[in-house]
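Work package 3, deliverable 3.1, input record:
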Amino acid sequence: GQSLEQPSEVTAVEGAIVQINCTYQTSGFYGLSWYQQHDGGAPTFLSYNALDGLEETGRFSSFLSRSDSYGYLLLQELQMKDSASYFCAVRVTPGQRDDKIIFGKGTRLHILP
Amino acid sequence: NAGVTQTPKFRVLKTGQSMTLLCAQDMNHEYMYWYRQDPGMGLRLIHYSVGEGTTAKGEVPDGYNVSRLKKQNFLLGLESAAPSQTSVYFCASSSLPGLAYTDTQYFGPGTRLTVL
């Protein structure tokens, strides 16, 4: 089967740094994406990695190691508004009839003042 | 530019009733998707479309049908609703992956469906 594994919950302190890991097992791999979802809201795109290495977007960074089938999202200078759920997602074989996107079950990030 | 919109926002159905959820996007995206989200389950793909007139099954397609008669619209139908279909339904769209060095999905606000 195809699966993405990420921790169900993470707790961190305001102003600190937190890392959310994602490991995947899929039949194909095009890229790893990260989405943020606040309670009652829709998922919004944060970051994307197709190649190994680190991508930085402001306070958020995302890392990918395709050989390890592993990635992570790094959030720096945490703010209370970062309290949300974070999902990793893998697109499988794009452009083909069996193209799919698989989402992890999400990591709930709790931030303490 | 409204992005992705969904109709309705909320709905309560009785078991056995039918309904159609409408998704519309104004970004000229080729790909459109329907997901359901249940507590602790993340997002699960129901059906998707890679272009006008084409549809394909996702991870959890049973009990749902879809149509993509126009590029900007993607309809999700429940022919005979069941309590197990109580969920939050999200529509999303994206451009063709591979044409741009990104893979962003744009999500609608969601439809909260309760089946009694």
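The mean pLDDT of chain A is 92.
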